[in-house]
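Incident log, support desk, overnight shift.

02:14 A customer reports that sequence design results differ from what the structure should imply. Their input is reproduced verbatim below. On-call engineer (initials T.W.) acknowledged and began investigating.
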């Protein structure tokens, strides 16, 4: 019997492997391994090629969006002062029935009343956004709105949430009902979208190499972060530096507003390490920063009958009211040039 030619040997050697791969692909497509990845917020956002997701247009109801695509009141193009707020579901007003209850709207109304000017505070917050998406939006569209001040609302989960919510960082496929794999380009992205085996191997590898327990907001309050958490911090702060650089190049001031978690209210001295780190980062770069934790702690201490949170990090109506009061005072005090009336023109000399 003559030996088989090498092409047939190669075919017979790889054929069992191909059969196993095809069987595995079929099995993984039939068995839903990751139930619960689509949250009850499905329908709030739609896919976006650069930002991964953006708000889905709604013409009416509690999720109604304006002409800019945000959960906000009608855009006042002719306002005397225009501010742009970048943020996540906290500023967006998760669990609130109306946009008027969210602190950005309250700040807009109070600034208009206190200054006698028409103030337009553009609430560009989107649920689930982290600093990298806020940076991308600022560069893509935000600067075109010609704001006189950019406000960044920073939630502590900006540091860690991407590692569980986004496929690019080893997280799940779907987040807020959007397939996050679509944002990954190249061969890796193609394999991740079209091969269930490759996807599962990637998820397994990321789970082995990353301590997911360390990537929790409560762990951020510890004096010494773990190596995993430190890497996450470095990435978030690099993106925050990108926002600072972008606004500086555009000649715009930047304000940082740090929103707390409910677990921090009892003992801010012991749990406020993330805020102290952010405030120190901002101070070194000349960014005015407002840490809301002291104001929330004082409210919690003196008015326990008015809870500030609906859940771990989303404000109640009382929380939004507290945040609005602190932010209004902060903006009036730290940015007086914005609220100064323009000098009247010099009268022409007679004769």
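02:41 Re-run completed on a clean worker. Output:
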């Amino acid at each position: 019997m003559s030996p088989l030619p090498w092409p047939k040997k190669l075919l017979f050697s790889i054929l069992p492997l191909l059969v196993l791969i095809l069987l595995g692909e079929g099995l993984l497509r039939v068995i839903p391994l990751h139930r619960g990845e689509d949250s009850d917020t499905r329908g709030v956002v739609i896919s976006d090629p650069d930002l991964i997701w953006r708000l889905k247009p709604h013409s009416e109801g509690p999720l109604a969006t304006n002409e800019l695509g945000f959960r906000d009141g009608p855009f006042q193009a002719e306002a005397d002062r225009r501010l742009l707020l970048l943020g996540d579901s906290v500023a967006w007003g998760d669990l609130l029935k109306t946009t008027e209850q969210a602190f950005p709207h309250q700040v807009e109304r109070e600034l208009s009343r206190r200054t006698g000017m028409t103030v337009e505070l553009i609430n560009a917050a989107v649920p689930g956004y982290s600093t990298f998406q806020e940076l991308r939006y600022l560069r893509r569209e935000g600067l075109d709105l010609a704001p006189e001040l950019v406000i960044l609302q920073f939630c502590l989960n900006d540091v860690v949430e991407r590692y569980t919510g986004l496929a690019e960082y080893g997280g799940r496929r779907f987040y807020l009902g959007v397939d996050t794999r679509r944002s990954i380009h190249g061969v890796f992205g193609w394999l991740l979208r079209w091969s269930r085996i490759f996807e599962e191997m990637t998820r397994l590898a990321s789970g082995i190499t990353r301590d997911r327990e360390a990537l929790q907001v409560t762990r951020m309050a510890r004096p010494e972060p773990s190596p995993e958490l430190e890497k996450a911090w470095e990435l978030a702060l690099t993106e925050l530096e990108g926002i600072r650089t972008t606004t500086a190049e555009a000649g715009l001031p930047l304000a940082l507003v740090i929103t707390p978690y409910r677990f921090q209210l009892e003992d801010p001295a012991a749990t406020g390490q993330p805020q102290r780190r952010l405030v120190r980062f901002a101070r070194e770069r000349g960014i005015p920063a407002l840490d809301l934790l002291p104001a929330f702690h004082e409210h919690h201490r003196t008015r326990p009958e008015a809870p500030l949170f609906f859940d771990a990090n989303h404000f109640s109506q009382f929380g939004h009211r507290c945040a609005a009061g602190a932010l209004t005072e902060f903006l009036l005090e730290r940015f007086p040039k914005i609220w100064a009336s323009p000098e009247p023109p010099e009268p022409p000399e007679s004769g």
